Amino acid sequence: MAVSIAEMILLGLLADWIFRKLRFPGLIGMLLLGVLVGPFVLNRMAPDFLMVSADFRLIALVVILLRAGFELSREALSKVGKQALLLSFAPSLLEGVTVALLGPYFLPLTRMESALLGFILAAVSPAVVVPAMIHLIEEYRGVKKGIPTLVLAAASAENVFAITVFYVLMGLYGGQSAHIGRALAGIPVSILLGIGAGLALGWIMLRLFERFNPRATKRTLIVIGISVLLIRLQQLLESTVPFAALPAVLGLGFVILEKREHMAHEISSKLGKIWVFASIMLFTLVGAQVNLPVVVKAGAAGFGLIVCGLIARSAGVFLCLIRSPLNGRERLFAVIAYLPKATVQAAVGAVPLAAMIQAGGDPAPGNVILAVAVLSILFTAPSGAWLIDWAGPRLLTADRPEEGRAALEAIKASEG
Questions:
Q1: What φ, ψ does residue 337 adopt, rounded to 5°?
Q2: Hey, what long-range contacts does 37-40 have (CB within 8 A, 24 or more apart)?
Q3: What is the distance between the alpha carbons of residues 24 and 90, in angstroms, rounded to a whole number?
Q4: For the segment 243-281, what is each residue's pLDDT rounded down to a tens digit?
Q5: What is the pLDDT of residues 148-178, one digit of tens each?
């Protein structure tokens, strides 16, 4: 397995560099590398490496959410206000429900399997959006109305919402279908409990860090370890208490950023370095799970379903911005910025397939779900990145340099 990890690191970095030079997101190169060396093409990955892929994806997901938590300051959230709150769940909810309703007509999936796919697709990609928004701030575009900040804050929160709903639905799919109404009603309760637990744990960890003063690297490892244990706690409480671990993970970073900004920036910087390794493992291992014949078979129908979901998502963004101070061109930009998919789809796209295989059931629906998730990345990540780059200078006005500089410093500080 060690040799496979070494090969993926070296080849993943090379693929990332090549695709960035071609002005495509580097994650596309890593994803295609995984497809190429995976068991369905060249079969160059060690079997034991593939067996632990779910654990690597879990760690990558934790790093994603922790980075989001360390980027969400109270000041940024209060500036963009109600629109950020609406954008954090409404477009995702509309897209997920649309895919759930239309999925059985496009693909060989049940309604529940379509719902799983819907909330896999229903999250915008921080890996594409964050660098693009920082670039716009560097050009002082849209910063007076806080448009890049709005997209950054709402996109981070939306990831948590979509993933939380997905895992609740996974619990239903795993054998709790007799209690669908109760489980769905428990979604907001589970999110609130998760947020509360995260805020409380964040406060406790902050006090311990202040008392014992461990190095930033040790603080980062402690935060990651606690976050993984929170997910394990959710699994243990699954049948008794509606508890969502992912909002708790987000809350950890939020508390530390709010109370000790310098400490939060140090941890965020370490997480950014860990993400370099985690992203290679995430995207190459997801690519390795892709069954190419299934992708080809799902091609046109899967693409059509993705487009339907994107139309519903775009309508949701417009509805959320009706009473905002943004003009028509700026609202159109927000719609475009909410199109790219990549990170969450890679992190959880293979979860249904793994669950079906572990349960000894038919893996065919899981293969279809993974194929459409990968198809959404291949379609929306490069096109979304290009559209944001094209639309920014044309739809957003350039503001005064001092306004853009202040916004950029705030975002870069949270990035570490």
A1: -65, -20
A2: 37/7, 37/8, 37/11, 37/284, 37/288, 38/287, 38/288, 38/289, 38/290, 39/288, 40/290, 40/291, 40/292, 40/293
A3: 29
A4: 878 788 878 888 898 888 889 889 988 988 898 898 898
A5: 878 877 887 787 788 878 888 887 776 644 4
Contact criterion met (CB below 8 Å) for 28 and 18: no
Residue type for position 264: A
Six-digit token string for 339: 């199109």
Span between the terminal Cα atoms of the chain, in Å: 32
Which CATH number is 53-415's, of 3.90.199.10, 1.20.1530.20, 1.25.40.80, 1.20.1250.20?
1.20.1530.20
> 94, exposed or middle or buried, with CB in 10 Å at 0-12, 13-18, 19+?
buried
- Contact indicator for 346, 31 with CB cutoff of 8 Å: yes
Q: What DSSP line would sit under 27-92, residue for residue?
A: HHHHHHHHHHHSTTTT--S-HHHHHTHHHHHHHHHHHHHHHHHTT--HHHHHHHHHHHHHHTTHHH
So where are the chain's domains? 53-415
Contact of 56 with 281, CB cutoff 8 Å:
yes
pTM: 0.76
